Amino acid sequence: MSHGLIRDVVVNANIIEMEYAVRGAIPQRAAELKKQGRNIIFCNIGNPQALGQRPISYYRQILSLVEDPGQISREHQLRKVVGASIRDAALMLKEDVLQQAEYILHKMESGMGAYTESRGPAFIREAIARFIDERDQVSGGDGLRANPDHIFLTNGASDAVKSVLEMLIAAPQDGIMIPIPQYPLYSAAIKKLGGVQVNYYPDEESGWSLERAMLDESIRAAREQGVNVKAIVVINPGNPTGAILDEGSMREVIAFAHENNLAIMADEVYQENVYDGRFVSFAKMVGRAPVPLFSLHSVSKGFYGECGHRGGYLEVRNAPRVQGTDANFIDILVKQASVSLCSNTVGQILVYLMVTPPAPGSASAASFAREKQQILEELYKKAEIIKEAFTHMEGMHCFGRIGALYLFPRIDHLPAGTSDFEYCMQLLETTGLCTVNGRGFGQKPGTHHLRIAFLPPAEMLQEVLPQWIDFHNRHVRG
Asked: How confident is the model at residue 162 (pLDDT cuts 50, 70, 90)?
């Protein structure tokens, strides 16, 4: 038996080289400081419940019942008790909560611990299709209805992104256009799969709007390098910018994709986080245009903030055929989904609840609406508090409407020879505020930014923001 040294192993170089800044060096240093007893405010990632956002009661009550069906029997027994005390009545769950839980369990058939259909249960996909049609005001012959068979339940939107990119990137010169700045899931996934990242640059000073000329220039430069561009990613509302795309920009993207034979990947997980704007989906804007569209949504954001439960969906429209086969894209997605058997069932149920809120006039409707409104109003208020603080920082500018969960200010003045990485690291060390530097998302050469998630409680922000203002003005003066 050999007792020599363990041999080195060759691993995928693409995985070694890929980066994911929101969990990168600055958050890692923040974790070290926290272990040392420092008070750290983690604003590096959109993780609402980690910063104190309360779960929606309606969702969690139903989840508790479907995970432990014995509770349903106990609730019914409580209702049968003659002369139940006022105290007991107050402990009862609302009737529509019980009814929804019973309906879900009936439809799930084998309960929460069994595998489901690979695409996800039909009743959930049908509910998603109705949600999409209602959101996009599709009725009768007014537009194209969502097809439940073209909807896939996924472990969060991230899995949907990876599934589509795994299929599109078939050769080393296959390219995917992504906005810069972008959510680093896209750059990391493209790197891992051995494809080519093709950057395009929304116009920051006009609120991160898109113009046809920038898209044309991006694809022209890529093609000159022999890149086979296959899709364009659009994140709306934006991450990290928080910007909300206007309909003019969306039309530019659709026309560009059509003329260049590209698919559109529409990352719309922040569609509830529009605050002072209005969300319009790419499905609605594409309409009958023959453009392949992959739309993503998730329970992680919005007002629900259920990041850890990993629930999401992918909707496909105008699925292309697969070259050299009799199959189309949907067929291969079904095969791909079957390899993982199914997404997790708790995430599936949360997606169902996301697209089927309490009916107007039902027992839970008022409290649900109140919780939703409170969360969204608090998020907007906190964003405004931070944005107002920027006005007291020399050379700090933040463009675009408030959307998603982030602000992405530009830092116009930094000491010579330094970058936004040093700025964010020193901000962390000085104030305990953990942000992510702009380079982690990509940015125009010669510019510097940072991303901050506006999730901490308002009182925590009001305590740390004066420290940030003081740090910033001292730092930029050198």
From this structure: confident
